[in-house]
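Why does residue order matter? Because the sequence determines the fold. Keep that principle in mind as you read this record.
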Amino acid sequence: MFRMTAAHDRLRFELAVHRRAGLRRMSPRVSPAPATTAAGARPLFAPAPAATATAPERQAQLDRVAQEVASCTACKLCEQRNRAVPGEGALDPPILFIGEGPGADEDASGRPFVGRAGQLLDKMIAAIQLERRQVYIANIVKCRPPENRQPEPDEVRACAGYLERQIAALRPRLICTLGLPATRALLPDVRAISAVRGREFTYGGVPLVPTFHPAYLLRNPAAKPQAWEDLQLVARKLGIVLARRNPPPASN
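Structure:
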């Protein structure tokens, strides 16, 4: 079984930070190779090695993450949270959707993407002939940033091990990052989501396709056709044949 403790996660993350700074006195067997990025920079999260695990083992790994997240005090976001939001979904998902952080509805429920943006995400998933229960949804931080601001670098670093362990347990066929903060956490050279959306990258051997965050699409409906193009790319990568050629209905 693939096992990893919280302390081990923190150590591996610190080692990844040192590698980004140019310190390389470590064995490649201890720290796995970084993902391919737009310009070759080190990702914020160190991709975990591939692991073969049964469904009960994967569930146990995800349950441990959820338990640790619920009592985590590694950053200041814990001070105002009502409920932590580790993530939810299938144990063997074709897609792992990664957003930036919980909002008010998520903080109240403990579930990711349940507000208006979540309703639109559900429609986006349905547009590529999948259901929410068939994918996995998580965020780069597990507690709500105040006033729904973007997560700060130290907050993202504090949650790095949790997301890394989720990716290692799930081994999704494809990662779809939603918005700039989530994309930049895995592809640190990215400066604008518009520059990378609809393109294919690789993270830890897993195809990665960035697209707009559903909340952005609610504020900027004109970007929905571009998001639909991104979803069509995701579908093609998964071998899903789509009958619909026009963007899915808008959600207000």
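Strands lie at 88-89, 95-99, 136-139, 174-178, 201-203, 206-211.
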